[in-house]
Amino acid sequence: MTSESPPGSRRRAAGARLHGLRRALEPALRRVFHLYWRFARGLTLGVRALVIDGEGRVFLVKHSYVSGWHLPGGGVEVGETIGEALARELAEEGNIALTAEPLLHAVYFNGHVSRRDHVALFIVRDFRQAAAPEPNREIIATGFFAPEALPAEATTGTRARIAEVFGDVAVSGRW
């Protein structure tokens, strides 16, 4: 008989250390990525999706490299359309396949990230998700949440976009 901790508690402790490290490094990592993007791209363009299931819940993701729960999405790569980027990001982050054309809701200036960043937000109601995605190096958790019962760590931008779509809130133009 040994006095070692059970595997679950070791994993939780490791997860807590990783979360603390991520939060500590997040500002520096953002600056490094945006310095690179400043030279690699004159302007950054991202896509995000407000994926709404049949019960009116929204799909959110939690990344390994930034804090909080976010709408799924990411950057548009060189030579890629925003529609292709959206489909790719949804497949990568949520195991979600579009089954109809998504609706472009708005394009936002994302000055919190850099003075060059813009995000196109799409509303997705027609999709297929064969299975929930397995956590990986990029996405550590996912889920569908009722708009009135979002996780406490849902970001301000995520909450604002959900309020624009589900509430009586005007589109701001700024993420």
Q: Which structural class do you get from the secondary structure elements?
A: alpha+beta
* Cross-sheet strand order for the largest sheet: 4-1-7-6
Distance between the termini: 55 Å
Helix content: 25-40%
Coarse shape: globular
CATH superfamily caption? Nucleoside Triphosphate Pyrophosphohydrolase
Describe the protein in words:
With 175 residues, the protein is an alpha+beta fold. It has 3 helices and 9 strands. It has helices at 7-40, 82-94, 156-166, and strands spanning 44-51, 58-63, 69-70, 73-75, 96-98, 103-109, 117-124, 127-129, 139-145. The strands form 3 sheets. Strands 4-1-7-6 form a 4-stranded mixed beta sheet, sandwiched between helices. A 3-stranded antiparallel beta sheet has the order 3-2-9, with helices on one face. Strand 6 and strand 7 (117-124) form a beta hairpin.
